[in-house]
Amino acid sequence: MDVLGIDIGGSGIKGAPVSLASGEFLAERHRIETPQPATPDAVAQVVNNLVQHFAWQGAVGCTFPAVIKRGVSYTAANVDESWIGFNGEQLLSEVCQRPVLLLNDADAAGLAEVRYGAGKDQQGMVIMITLGTGIGSAIFVNGVLVPNTEFGHLKIRGKDAEDRASDRARKEKEWSFRKWSARLSEYLQEMEALFWPDLFIIGGGVSKKHEKFLPLLTCRTPVVPAQLQNDAGIVGAALAAGALLRV
Ligand code: BGC
Q: Residue 5 is inside which H or E element, if any?
């Protein structure tokens, strides 16, 4: 079974056909710049361009950086506000003329890591944290996802965690990895005091540089880097669509 996975991000919209048997790409991934402003109509056109690029005939899974319930986005922390209350899944299905499933980006990345990557065969509670423009979270208990958790917005010292510990905060404030890792440790410690997870998986682009900051973290839970890195969103979107749309 193959599904086209698409990862909708703030700067790029990336896709590739994915084999659900292996989690591998069946063709080289293709990236198109995210239109600005990233309104639903503009994003739907780009998603349809990706469908056409791969001459895709089957189902599509799409990530989106917001809470998504039954196709509707309920938040817009780092995306155009016109998505709030909007059924993006319906629009994408109409524009692409095929079944499309929309899900939260961190949930998708977590699904991919738990199936094929750093969380494979892990029992107990696994928490995936993605560090990018925002902080995304995905919580798994014995491999089962609790969807739409928004722990990037946990308050730490009165501030949104993603304003203190995201990769955007590190870059904007020009913090060294040492300085940033202290804030990240504080965030992970707060998460472990609330959840007592068995494993943290750290994803997002910065996880490629994990050797610069994972050894500096001071939480008690084991922390491992994501294995699928940039591809996790695409793979997870395809996985979720394959399961939910029963293609
Ligand atoms: C959003 C989440 C998203 C995360 C990562 C946060 O600002 O609220 O829904 O998963 O960023 O993109």
A: strand 2-8
Q: Phi-psi bin for 73: left (phi > 0), alpha (psi -120 to 50), beta?
A: beta
Please give the Cα distance from 43 to 49 (Å, whole number): 10
pLDDT of 23 reads 94
**HSE on the CB side for 110, CA within 13 Å?**
31
55 C-alpha to ligand 1 centroid (Å)? 30
Rounded-to-integer distance, Cα 127 and Cα 91, Å: 31
89 and 178 together in one domain: no
pLDDT digits (tens, 9 = 90+) for 56-83: 999 999 999 999 999 999 999 888 999 9
Closest of 204, 235, 183, 84 to residue 136, by C-alpha: 204
pTM: 0.97
Instruction: Using most ligand atoms within 8 A of CB, pick from 81, 105, 149, 164 the residue to mutate for ligand 1.
Output: 105
Q: Is the peptide bond before 215 cis (omega within 30 degrees of 0)?
A: no
Q: In total, how many domains does the chain have? A: 2
What is the span of the domain harbouring residue 136? 121-226
What pLDDT, in 10s, does the model give residues 184-236?
999 999 999 999 999 999 999 999 999 999 999 999 999 999 999 889 999 99
- Length of the chain (residues): 247
Å from CA of 163 to ligand 1 middle: 12
